[in-house]
Design goal:
320 residues; Rossmann fold; DNA polymerase, domain 1; globular
Length: 320
Amino acid sequence: MTVALAHVPVMVDEVVAALRPAPGDHIVDGTFGGGGYSDALLALGARVTGFDVDPRAIARAAAKVAANDGRLTLVNAPFSQMVERLGAASAAGVALDLGYSSIQMDDAEYGLSFQADGPLDMRLSGSGPTAADFLNHADEGEIADVLYHYGEEPAARRIARALVAARPLTRTQEFAALVRRAVRARPDAKRDPATRSFQAVRIHVNDELGELRRGLAAAEAVLKPGGRLAVVSFHSLEDRIVKQFLNLRSGNLPNMSRHLPPEASGKNPPSFAKPAKAVRPGDAEVARNPRARSATLRVAERTAAPAWDDVEDFSKKEWQ
C-alpha cells in the first residue's frame, strides 16, 4: 500500500481570502479530506466543523481535533447533511473542495487510481456497491451511459462492450488495461486513456454530482446573511453545476428580468449576490502541486433572502 505523507490543499490562500474568516466565526469545511482548509481557517481563529463521508479521514484527524481545544469538530457524514447536523443560518462560511485528497488518491486500497494496483472499490464511505459490483452486474447500456455522461468518453460503447466481455473484474489496473485496449491507445498519448473511465465510474459509485447538487442547496440554507460560499471544482461537470446553481440563485440568468420584483417575475428573491468571477490557480501553485492545474474556484455571498425550496433540479441525474 502506497500512501502520500501529506495532503497539499488546492488554492487554500484564495479560498481563505474568499471566506474572510474572523476569530470566532463558524466555518463549515464540507470536504475535510486531509484537513488543509481547516488548518488554515483554525490558524485565523475560526471554529470549524468538518464533514467527510470517509471514516478513514475522520480517524486520521483525531490528533488534530485534540490539538485544537474544541474549535474543530468532525462529522462522518456527507456535506449535504450540514443543515440537519448544524441547523439553518448557523455558519459564516462554507468551503467545498470537490477533489480527492492526495492521501486518498495515493492509497491503492481506495481503488481511486490506476497508478498502483488495488481493489476495484472507489467508495469513500466504505459502504454500498463497489466499482467492481457496478462493472460486473450492470448491463452494457448502463455502463456505456455512465462512461459517456460522467467521463465524457467518446468510446463509451466500445469500452462497455469490452468490460462486459471480460467479467469478472476485480483490480484497478485490470480495468485500466481493458480500457486502453478498447480505445486502441497510442503509447505517446498525453493523458492515459483510462482517466475518463475511472472518473466516470468513481462519480457514479459515490453519486458525486447528486451529492454536489444537494450540498449546494444545503450550503445555501446553512449560511447566515453575509456568509460566503467557496467551491473548488476539478472538471467541467462539477463546475457547470456550481456555475448554474449560483447564477440561478443570484438571479443572474438571461431569461430573468432584473427590472421586475421577484413576485412579478415568478421567481424567488436571490439568495446569493452575483457571484464573483471564477478564479484559476497561478503558475506557481500548479508547479508546486500539479493536481491543482484543473481547479476552478467560484465564490458567492449569501443575501438575507430565504433559502429556496426547489432542490429537485439539483438532485436528479442530468441525463434522465
